[in-house]
Amino acid sequence: MFKRIDHVEIIPRNAERTIRFYTDILGFQVISREAVNAPPLKEVIYLRLGDTTIEVMSVDDPKPGAESPWQIGLRAIALEVEDMAKAVEYLKTRGISMSLAPVDLGNSYRGELRDPDGLIIELRQWK
């Protein structure tokens, strides 16, 4: 009956900055952009990386979320990487530092970075 997660929605402070981060840094591609006349919603942008889709919702005057990393609700998105060391080095060349350095969990390596609005992006390399 249920097949997979189709997409994840995010509401950024600045949609253009977020789109540039996900496309220019992480390699997502813009697959569609649609203006929406449903205030406060202005535009819906779909970004895709492999079979992962993020829906960026551009809204007027977005409100900040809670500051606790242990709040109820969505905590992070996770991207699988082929080589953690190479991914971390690439991010450094783009001015992006890890918010949590990669650690060896036995069956994988796991680290974290943040998008422009502080959303946790987990990087995972499976062994």
List descriptors.
4-stranded mixed β-sheet, globular, 2,3-Dihydroxybiphenyl 1,2-Dioxygenase, domain 1, single chain, 127 residues
Molecular structure report:
A hairpin with a 2-residue loop joins strand 2 and strand 3. This protein has two helices and eight strands, in the order E-H-E-E-E-E-H-E-E-E. A four-stranded mixed sheet has the order 1-4-3-2, with helices on one face. A four-stranded mixed sheet has the order 5-8-7-6, with no helix packed on it. It is of the alpha/beta class and 127 residues long. The chain has two domains: 60 residues, 2,3-Dihydroxybiphenyl 1,2-Dioxygenase, domain 1, CATH 3.10.180.10; 53 residues, 2,3-Dihydroxybiphenyl 1,2-Dioxygenase, domain 1, CATH 3.10.180.10.
Give the helix tally.
2
Integer tally of domains: 2
Give the CATH H-level superfamily of the largest domain.
2,3-Dihydroxybiphenyl 1,2-Dioxygenase, domain 1
CATH class label of the largest domain: Alpha Beta
Task: For the record, give the distance between the C-alpha atoms at the N and C termini, rounded to a whole number.
Answer: 31 Å
Oligomer: single chain
Fill in the CATH topology of the largest domain.
2,3-Dihydroxybiphenyl 1,2-Dioxygenase, domain 1
- How many DSSP-defined strands? 8
The percent of residues in helical segments reads: 10-25%
Beta percentage is 35-45%
